[in-house]
Structures are given as C-alpha cells and as structure tokens.
User: Which sequence fits this backbone?
C-alpha cells in the first residue's frame, strides 16, 4: 500500500511540474507570490490538482499490479515527493530557512550561500529526485497481468512416505 501511494504521489508531483502555472500567471500580469494560499504554495495546489490525472494513469496502466517490491527507486521516489511537497508548505519552508540561517551563522556553511539558495537547491534536488526515481520505477515495472489468461490449476505433489524398517 505504501509503495503504491509513493508512486501515485510521485506521479502527481511529476504531472504538476508539467503545468506551467507560474509562467502563465506572470504572462497574464498576475503575481504568483500574491496568490499565497493559507498553508500551501501554488505548487502544492498543483500537486493536489494533478492527483486525479495521476490516479487515472495509475489505474489505466495497472501500476498497482506492476510495481516491483520495494526497491531503492521506490524509496527515493517517496523521499523526493514528500520533500517537494514539504518545501511548498509555509511551516516547513520557514523551518528549513531558519535551520539554514542558523547553519550559516554558526559557520557550518560559507557566508556566500544564502538560506534562499539552500532552499532552492533542496527544491531542485527534490524535482530531480522525483524525475529520476519515477523513471527508475517505470523502467522496472513487471509485465501486466493478462485478463484473458487461464488460471493455472495447481498439480498436487505426491507425498513421499518413509518406509518402515
């Protein structure tokens, strides 16, 4: 169940990345940052909107039966998808920015790196992780179960008994 949910979320994130919502808003004269929703960012809203097409693709391709058992690709897809969604929520974005500011102030990171650059780098890594991991999962899909194939009848195995001495 968890691997199916992670692949579905990864597919929704990938589909949301295909929507050029930010660019369309800029071209129409609307500031995308002015459309702040109470808890989520515009990208998270696009992920939620892409969940329906992702669910339809998931059912049409019969991915529930074809996803391999847990692999490194499925785990990476789950981590990258959750990281992408978390980076576009207000409370986690503020937490990541505060942690980056503290790391820079403590001298753990060079002063040339700003907290904004760190968050942008994390977002880029999450986007790239979703793309690469979803390709890895899709390349490792098992064959689709054939609906018309006859169900194999199990052949009973004869039981071997020991001979008495």
Assistant:
């Amino acid at each position: 169940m968890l691997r199916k949910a992670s692949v579905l979320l990864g597919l929704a994130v990938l589909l949301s990345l295909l929507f050029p919502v930010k660019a369309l808003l800029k071209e129409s004269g609307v500031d995308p940052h002015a459309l702040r929703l109470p808890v989520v960012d515009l990208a998270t809203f696009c992920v939620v909107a892409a969940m329906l097409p992702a669910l339809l693709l998931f059912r049409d391709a019969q991915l529930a039966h074809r996803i391999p058992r847990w692999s490194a690709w499925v785990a990476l897809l789950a981590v990258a998808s959750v990281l992408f969604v978390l980076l576009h929520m207000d409370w986690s974005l503020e937490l990541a920015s505060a942690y980056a500011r503290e790391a820079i102030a403590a001298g753990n990171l060079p002063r040339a790196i700003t907290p904004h650059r760190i968050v942008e780098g994390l977002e880029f890594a999450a986007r790239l992780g979703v793309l690469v991991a979803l390709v890895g999962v899709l390349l490792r899909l098992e064959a689709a179960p054939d609906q018309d194939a006859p169900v194999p009848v199990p052949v009973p195995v004869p039981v071997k008994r020991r001979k008495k001495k």
About this structure: The two ends are 53 Å apart (CA to CA).
